[in-house]
Write a structure and sequence with these properties.
Mean pLDDT: 79
Structural class: mainly alpha
Low-confidence stretches: none
Strand content: under 5%
Helix content: 55-70%
Shape: elongated
Distance between the termini: 30 Å
Length: about 60
């Protein structure tokens, strides 16, 4: 339950979590280009964040009305 509170009550997909966990352990001394799958993951995350922000704004607006 505590994990749900930390991410706004939403559950993440297993594929997203797995991809992010695999990226955690990468340490490079020089920059590299992102792979296609990393670019897609970033785009997906951006869309999911935008959707969640909109949901929160709508909830806040409804509370004020």
């Amino acid at each position: 339950m505590d994990a749900n509170l930390n991410n706004g009550g939403k559950t993440d997909s297993a594929s997203t979590l797995t991809a992010l966990q695999s990226l955690k352990h990468v340490t490079c001394s020089k920059p590299r280009s992102l792979t296609e799958s990393e670019i897609e993951l970033l785009r997906q995350s951006k869309v999911e964040i935008a959707m969640r922000v909109n949901e929160l704004l709508e909830l806040d607006k409804a509370k004020k009305d």
